[in-house]
Design brief:
Number of strands: 24
Distance between the termini: 68 Å
Helix content: 25-40%
Amino acid sequence: MFTKEQTLQLQHTTKTLLDHLQQHAAIALTDIESLRDVLRFHEYRYYIENDPLLADFEYDQLFKTLEQLELAHPESITPTSPTQRVAKGLTNEFPTAVHLVPMLSLDNSYNADDLLDFDRKAKELSGAANISYCVEPKFDGGSISLIYENDMLVRGATRGNGVEGDEITTNMKQIPSIPLSAKFSQYGLQQVEIRGEALINKNNFQKYNEQIVAQGLAPLANPRNAASGTLRVKDSREIKKRHLEVFVYHISDFTLLDGATVPPQLTTHSGSLELLWDLGFRSPQKEKKVFDSIHEVIDYCHAFEEKRDTLPYEIDGMVIKVNDVPLQEKMGMTSHHPRWAIAYKFKARQATSKLLEVTFQVGRTGAITPVAKIQPVPIGGVTVSSISLFNEEVIREKDLMIGDSVLVERAGDVIPYIVKSLAEVRTGNETPVVFPQLCPVCSGQLFKEQEEAVWRCVNIECPAQVVERIIHFVSKDAMDIRGFGEANVRKFNAAGLLKDIPGIYNLDFNVIGNWEGFGKRSIENMQQAILASKSQPLHRLIFGLGIRFVGETTAKTLANTVSHLLDLQQYTQEQLLTLEDIGPKVAGSIVHFFSNADNIAMLKELETLGLNMVNDKRSAPVSGGLSGKTFLFTGTLPTLKRSDAEAMAEAKGGKLLSGVSAKLNYLVVGEDAGSKLEKAKKINTVNIISEAEFLALIANV
């Protein structure tokens, strides 16, 4: 529908309008047609192509601006304005299905003030002094409509343009969570039209992407695009491959059997969700809440936003609906949205930006990590300007070029990553990302293991590696030298005062004491923390050394194996393989570390400086009811921090493993357990338990 030239021009206009909004918070009336054009374009990309070139929040900004312009200048409204209809979403690939009731969009809000204003308007429109609201998650997938007649599923359709959509009944019948029949007749209902959202579970989405990347195909951008695109696949078997699921959230229309009366459940929205749940549909019955106050609604929305990442599905907000159906009917709707419902959108997780350059960082193990520098962009309340690209293969998979427009997301509202490049809007001025052949710090040769994706600098004296090893050594989970964080390590190193790990214990505080920001008290605290670190248990020192593949659990295993740290010099790879949770890669890395003369010299120097090198009672195995049992924790536990749960297991004599194997007795699973859970399911001897079952086990031994 849109040519390459049109796409480039409309995307350029989009960025111009967004930049203007950011600077001036308004758009001139003279730009109203440009605003409508870009909205129509992005609706097409979203609903037809399932390949958006704009983040949802950015689209909402533009749409709200158009609404405000038309409200201030009603004479400017045209019949084809995006505010006067819902977005297009039809193709010629499927028959057209007319919805019994139009599938409208929802009005959006991003703060509590919007919800307070919604409450005020709802009371004015309904004439009610008090209103009960039903609040439920706003699932982020592909919208669908289902029709049941005489208890049988007779039609499934996409949202389309809201009035009519694509008829996809055959595809809908492949989704296990959609009943092929449901006993609506027991409630006196002959025909029912239901709204729902097709979704892909986060774990299933990740697995599917891994499969298609392994086939040399580009990964899908996100679960929403994957679900929406799957609805209209020609081969319905693909539905099962992608494990599509459906949540239903609204009964939009119904007709009664002769002589029947409206069932009481359908007089409230919450009652209709309960009815659907009882008939075997997946509705947000467990997540929905009914409140008599908009302030309670606001509190619930805020609380739900905090736990959005613990859910197995993507949600981008909450939907607030007037619970009383007669009041809904009294309030009515606009051509765009119902007046009795509003979506409270969570902080934006996506935005578009420009890739300015790629720099290359060197880690403590020599790993070369490409880092994207983008035009600073606010996402979820944080301005993002730097994003890890992990390795060279990621750059290739995402087809990234310097100068690209990119879609950026903050995973879990914490870690930013580039979802994809917007290759269709390239101007020809973009340049390839060139991965270095030599270390960007020491100019040493780079090396990559055949089975790995990471290039490494193999020069152990590389200054960047030295600094990163020191930062790891002083960190909280290693030697826990408080007040001696990354910034101070870099500062002391740059001044020539700290060149290696033993140098921590020989710092010249007479010099540091003359620096701004280092008063007498702060220096005393740092000196005390350095002194205290000398008595840390052996497993912390082993972890702090930064031996490749040796995590905290393996460090404890090694500490419990030897009487003195230097005993590990005598261990062969075969001997190490007999230890709990140590495989060939880990064993090889340990042997390599302890066969290096420079490393042994460093350890002897640390012992001379007074660091604990012996296996004392703090690292000895604990006897208890779980002695001999092994544990691994995965996913987000409902109430416990993972570190606390691990400590509880160890306190009862349990051992911790770092991976799933036949040696594992218990895998304790939380939300978003991922690949470890799937691997454990294939091993019959592993007991897969919940946090509650783990706590019961602890209590009974």
